[in-house]
Amino acid sequence: MSAGHQTGAKQNSSGASGQQGSAAPDWDGLKDDVSEIADAALDRGRGLLGSARDQATGFLDQRKDGVAQSVVELAQSLRETTESFADRPNLHGIVDTAAGSLEQLADQIRDRSVAEIFTDLEAIMRRRPVTVAVATLAVGFLAARFVKASAEGMRDDVRQSRQPPRIGAQAQTHAPAPSGGVAGT
Question: What is the crossing angle of helices 114-127 and 129-161, to 10°?
């Protein structure tokens, strides 16, 4: 049995090698065609990605002045809140320093291109990944708290806007007008 099996294997391998010999140029041509198609798709994808990046950068460049103004307004709001901390100079100093930092950030946003800002952010993220992770968690936590508080506020508004149905009002609209006599007579 093993001799017949070995003979069959030899025939299969010789038959397969005969087929591969004739099919090898077809496979090479197919590989070349697929490779050319893949290269063309990659080139087109890179072009589309570059175009999308250029459009996004242009959009962000147009909007960065608005973002800078929002940061300045946030700094002004912080400065206004420090008036209530007049009796706590340490807290007043911390909030005032934070407001000053926000104003510096707004100036940097105005003065730099979006590409420069992203390059700087990427460098910071590579130098201090733990700080970025902690800041991301803090922002996520604050965003979750904001969403939760907003949802609770909306729920309260909906509850207040719903008025319980008046039983007397429904009875008047669905019941016939009362007659002068007693019901059932």
Answer: 110
Per the structure block, which two tokens stand in for 41? Answer: 């798709």
pTM: 0.40
Q: Which residue has the higher pLDDT, 18 or 76?
A: 76
pLDDT of residue 39: 87
The number of CA neighbours under 13 Å toward the Cβ of 51 is: 6
Residue ranges covered by each domain of the chain = 41-127, 129-160
Give 28-77 as a DSSP string. HHHHHHHHHHHHHHHHHHHHHHHHHHHHHHHHHHHHHHHHHHHHHHHHHH
Burial of 97 (0-12, 13-18, 19+ CB in 10 A): exposed
